[in-house]
Amino acid sequence: IDGIHTKYDKEIRIGAYDAIKQYKDIVNQDPYRLHYHLMPPVGLLNDPNGFVYYKGLYHLFYQWNPFATEHGAKFWGHFSSRDLVRWKEEQIALAPSSSFDKNGCYSGSAVVHDDQLYLFYTGNVRDEAGNRETYQCLAISEDGVDFVKKGPVIELPSGYTAHFRDPKVWKQDDKWYMVIGAQTEKETGTVVLYRSTDLCNWQYLSLISDEQEFGYMWECPDLFSLQNKDILLFSPQGIEPDGYRYNNIYQSGYFVGKLDYQEAYYEHGAFKELDRGFDFYAPQTTLDEKGRRLVFGWMGVPEENEQDHPTIESYWIHAMTIPRQLLLRGDKLYQQPVDELVNLRTELIEYRHVTMEDNQLELQKISGKSLELVVEVKEHTNKYFSVFLGKTTRITFDQENKVFTLERKSINGEELETRHCHLNKLSRLRIFLDTSSIEIFINDGEEVFTSRIFDDQENDTISFQSKGKTIVDVYKWKLSN
Ligand code: FRU
Predict the structure, then answer these.
(1) Of 9, 30, 47, 279, which is the active-site residue?
(2) Edge-to-edge strands of the sheet including 324-329?
(3) How far away, in angstroms, is 382 Cα from ligand 1 center?
(4) Where is the Glycosyl hydrolase family 32 C-terminal domain (predicted)?
(5) Residue 307 falls inside a structural domain
(6) Which of 206, 251, 275, 451 sits a CA distance of 20 to 30 A from 158?
(7) Is 47 one of the catalytic residues?
(8) Same domain? 377 vs 262
């Protein structure tokens, strides 16, 4: 295999490390840099890849273009951690240096087999005429750091266009399975299922999808079981907005159902969005040693105002979400920050029984840019209740209409924009703020809003407003790593 350790592979790795060195100071001085989220050292980060627990460490790889703040020939960058909170930047895992991945080592996943780490990813190739080719490739490591490319294990089957990518692998009853995001020749989105006994030879089984059409391409599928159901998580493209739903250019969401492994048939319910904010895409899960189903998402969306991000001036763009745990209640996924995140907490400020009635108030020392804020709603006979963060970010629960809203300044700074969801009752808000990002967990993860926010740097005030009466307890921690 003409992969790792070739002259060209070395060259482009050195190029990437040079880019880090060259822009390090500028990147690190950017006031919008986050404090406890994973970000690219330079350039562009997108999807989480290869999320896995291996030999005592969590590994998270990511789509990375070190050479520009635009999409391009992606590398796999790599972080590792003992506790999901403190992360170490590891050496580059994969570089787009081979004939079968020269235009990008695209998204994929990791599994552990015989003490080795197996990475599956999509080799993205453009031929001389600019046409797309796709190869599902394997790379293996003995230590989780150095990977040896084994080349393609799956070629494009008939019936699909070259939009065929993002392999996610798992084990079930002594066999390996893989889902791949695909576009049929009729240009509808779907997911394809493969099976293998040895991780090298793969058998095409079937496509898993609705009879009816749902978008033109499904990216980054992830199939896993949770509480006896099989969840298919994926990111469809080409879905039209529908009321409060599907308001971003591309979505991420899931089906809850049951996969019949014998018949290779997946029966499932309706599509639900996983996150209701402005910036969330391509989530990937793993099962850890504690039996938790964990997820990272990309805090961004492809093509969604990427050129307007102010961090571009400082040679970087995008970040991962905080790590979260997925739980299933009924047929709905709940997302909760992983327990380990409490280790970031310092300097608790708390207020009990704060009563508001047709007024707006600030609480001393409830302010900041890198913090966790918990608001327990004790009583509300209000019309609405709002939390303002900085100048332009506002969270509102409209009790009369049972609507929850996040308002932010648009990335280009020109207007205020909103995302909404229906919510019957607001009992608890848990907000993670990190300079230019916000993650809002409503009622223990029933709904989550993930967004970047580029607000006035100086303004770190937080205030509360109630129309009618609201009584809350407020807790705030500074978060630092
Ligand atoms: C999703 C995606 C994947 C692809 C990768 C390329 O954001 O388009 O489908 O593998 O990004 O970076």
Answers:
(1) 47
(2) 281-287, 293-298, 324-329, 332-337
(3) 44
(4) 340-471
(5) yes
(6) 251
(7) yes
(8) no
Q: What CATH number is given to the structural domain containing 403? A: 2.60.120.560
CA of 281, closest atom in ligand 1: 7
CATH at residue 324: 2.115.10.20
Residues 195 and 231 in one domain: yes
Q: What are phi and psi of 306, to 5 degrees?
A: -65, -35
Bridge partner list, 171? 176
Query: Of 313, 337, 361, which marks where a domain is finished?
Result: 337
Q: Are residues 322 and 432 in the same domain?
A: no
Same domain, 56 and 132: yes
pTM: 0.97
> Considering its fold, how many domains does the chain have in total?
2
Q: Predicted ipTM?
A: 0.98
Reported as half-sphere exposure (CB side, CA atoms, 13 A), residue 481 has a value of: 15
Last residue of a domain, one of 311, 337, 363: 337
Say if 1 falls within a structural domain: no
Residue to mutate (ligand 1; options 49, 64, 161, 220; most atoms within 8 A of CB): 220
Closest atom of ligand 1 to 108 CA is 10
* 369 and 472 fall within a common domain: yes
- Same domain for 109 and 234, yes or no, is yes
Residue from 343, 322, 338 nearest 450 by CA = 322
CA of 219 to the centre of ligand 1 (A): 7
Is the same domain home to 277 and 425?
no
Distance, CA of 140 to chain centre: 24
pLDDT by residue, tens only, the chain of 481 residues: 544 568 899 999 999 999 999 999 999 999 999 999 999 999 999 999 999 999 999 999 999 999 999 999 999 999 999 999 999 999 999 999 999 999 999 999 999 999 999 999 999 999 989 899 999 999 999 999 999 999 999 999 999 999 999 999 999 999 999 999 999 999 999 999 999 999 999 999 998 865 568 999 999 999 999 999 999 999 999 999 999 999 999 999 999 999 999 999 999 999 999 999 999 999 999 999 999 999 999 999 999 999 999 999 999 999 999 999 999 999 999 999 999 999 999 999 999 999 999 999 999 999 999 999 999 999 888 789 999 999 899 999 999 999 999 999 999 999 999 999 999 999 999 999 999 999 999 999 999 999 999 988 788 999 999 999 999 999 999 998 7
Q: Which residues line ligand 1 (CB under 6 A)?
A: 46-47, 63, 74, 106-107, 122, 165-166, 219-220, 281-282, 302
Question: What is the extent of the structural domain holding 384?
Answer: 341-479
Q: Are residues 65 and 126 in the same domain?
A: yes
Ligand 1 atom with minimal separation from the 71 CA: 12
Residue 63 lies in a domain: yes
Q: CB-based contacts of 323: which residues, under 8 Å, 6+ apart?
A: 84, 294, 295, 296, 337, 338, 340, 341
Residue of 49, 62, 63 to mutate, ligand 1, most atoms within 8 A of C-beta: 63
